[in-house]
Amino acid sequence: MSEKTVLKLAKVQDSDVKGKNILMRVDYNVPISGGVVSDDTRIRASLKTIEFLLESGCRIVLMSHLGRPKGTINPKYSLEPVAKYLANMVKAKVTFAKDCVGPETDQVVSAADKGEIVLLENLRFYPEEEKNDEDFAKKLSSYGEFFVQEAFGALHRAHASTAQIPRFLPGAIGYLVQKELEFLDRTIIGPQRPFFAVIGGAKVSDKINVLNSLLEKVDGMLIGGAMAYTFLAAQHTNIGNSKIEEDKIEEARKIILKAFKNNVEFMLPADHLVVKDIELGTPKEFTQSMAIGDGWIGVDIGPRTEAIFLEKIKLAKTIFWNGPMGIFEREEYAHGTLLLANALKEATHLGAKTILGGGDTLSAIKKADIPQEAFSHCSGAV
To answer: Are residues 169 and 251 in the same domain?
Structure first.
């Protein structure tokens, strides 16, 4: 998407929203610990648009996903703690609807006045959301007269609440999406080179669109995290008991082939930190190559890989980072991720453009005790 295309998209501040019932897609996929929101970055990112709509006399119905409940109701993934948190951040009444569709939700939404907010329960409690179901989207659409898209982190997903609702309601993008798209267009469409992407995280399936898009733009791609094991398996490299996506091996091969055809340097880990048991953490050792022995599980990149990745980062003028290099939530498996965070901080200081994306990436720099302001741009998007 070019900058000119972004500027052509309808913007909420230029739209006729005064006094209307607004259906707004947000990204409140936030970490919750002990029933309390532990990182409110994504909630705060939506406040500018929410406040604008409240000042415009709108009733706002917010909808979001949280985690991966896989189409079933799971209290662990309820958005109720988010509703309680949001109520303390805005000067408006916030009501939580215990379902996202259905008769009870109809009543809750109908009872809300102008200048009030309703947060619907997790969209992913229904399999229809991820199946991009038209009827599900039509029902959600009945809760508003106008649709505002403010879930930048979910824009790339063909789900009912993102892809289908614009068919039934007029709409616009909120302030957050505007800011994200305009920055990324300026930086990624015409980047300073060399341009490297560092991609980690657990699943290839979560990043297929991102990977394919970046392979049209970057000079090199550094792959870490559990997704690296699927790519290694695609090249018939032994990965021991490491977690892989068997059904994405062929897709991984296609991505590797695309990188070759596009003359993109595609780098997988040269070595790994491995353990016999993730929970016990011992014994652990570094591999001597990219292969992982039988019975061992990869949990982080190894020292040779760290050195290779750091050299590429030093050369880069533009760097996009999305996803940790290992199970960074555990101190003993966080070294590669934290080293990378500090390397990008130093690269920014030396003049490189650094773009960080994804909730786990932001959590990683927080764990490294580095403020977001130390980088060129930070986004909660995947």
So the answer is: no
